[in-house]
């Protein structure tokens, strides 16, 4: 499934799968958003699957946001596995 971003006010909804095929676009888009915003809220309700590459990028972006004093928040009622994987990898 192709990766899509939808802007919903101050929240960006991600739809599709975050994997080796989509990771470059995912990373580039989020890096751009972090560069030009003071905070980024990412809604993962539309994420169907995420692989280790996706978790790695989320961890890198979280670290980058912290070092540049920007807020990076992940929300959504997506798959519990996605939430657990993101939170366990972000805290590691």
Task: Please tell me about this protein's structure.
This protein is an alpha/beta fold and 92 residues long. The chain has helices at 23-36, 52-67, 80-91; strands at 4-8, 11-18, 39-50, 71-75. It has a 4-stranded mixed beta sheet with strand order 1-2-3-4, covered by helices on one side. Helix 1 (23-36) runs parallel beside helix 2 (52-67) and helix 2 crosses helix 3. The longest helix has 16 residues, at 52-67. The N and C termini lie far apart (29 Å).
Descriptive tags:
92 residues; 3 helices; 46% helix
Taken from the alpha-carbon principal axes, the silhouette is globular
What is the total tally of β strands?
4
Pairing-aware structural class of the strands and helices? alpha/beta
Helix content: 40-55%
Average pLDDT confidence is 85
Radius of gyration: 12 Å
Q: Could you state the order of secondary-structure elements as H and E?
A: EEHEHEH
Cα distance, first to last residue?
29 Å
Give the percentage of residues in beta strands: 25-35%
Uncertain runs are none
* Spatial strand order of the main sheet: 1-2-3-4
Treating each run of at least 4 consecutive H or I residues as one helix, how many helices? 3
Biggest pleated-sheet summary? 4 strands, mixed
